[in-house]
């Protein structure tokens, strides 16, 4: 069985967003029984269930069912790391998204990302492979909003989702 994980770079961005929302991140890690030092290990990984637990606890502590739905915060704290740099080097948005499809496992092998051609362009679909605990919807929403913001940033155009 494959162990599903997310990169420390991605999780660091998520918990920095939590901190920007007023959540005590060291207490969150302590109460979750996780080593906060892993956030600064470039090769560090967090299990999918640990990331979901952090999201659940952060939503509960913030009292915000919409935690992660700030476009500004998603753009600031959604960290794709080296994959984002590879995407920025591409000549077109489609090529950048194809890079993400190719290298998504670097960010998280628990996330799925696919592109499907359509008469008006392409659809992209982001999903999560669950572990033992359900994936909080806020986690998926933050990922989608991060992608939309990143695509807007690298194209220099304000992109809007047609359908979510």
Labels describing this entry:
51% helix, 4 strands, two-stranded antiparallel ribbon, globular, H-NOX domain, 7 helices
Quick overview:
It is built from seven helices and four strands. It is an alpha+beta fold and 164 residues long.
Q: Termini distance?
A: 31 Å
By oligomeric state, this entry counts as single chain
Estimated helix fraction = 40-55%
Q: Work out the radius of gyration.
A: 15 Å
Sheet/helix structural class: alpha+beta
| Second-tier CATH architecture | Alpha-Beta Complex
Instruction: Predict the CATH topology.
Output: H-NOX domain
Mass-distribution shape: globular
Give an overview in words.
The chain has 164 residues and is of the alpha+beta class. It has a single domain, classed as H-NOX domain (Alpha-Beta Complex), CATH 3.90.1520. It is built from 7 helices and 4 strands; from the N terminus they run E-H-H-E-H-H-H-H-E-E-H. The chain has helices at residues 8-20, 25-32, 48-62, 71-77, 82-88, 93-107, 137-155; strands at residues 5-7, 45-47, 111-118, 121-128. The model has no long low-confidence stretch (mean pLDDT 91).
Helices and strands in order:
Elements: E1 5-7, H1 8-20, H2 25-32, E2 45-47, H3 48-62, H4 71-77, H5 82-88, H6 93-107, E3 111-118, E4 121-128, H7 137-155
Antiparallel strand pairs: 1-2, 3-4
Helix pairs in contact: 1-4, 4-7, 5-6
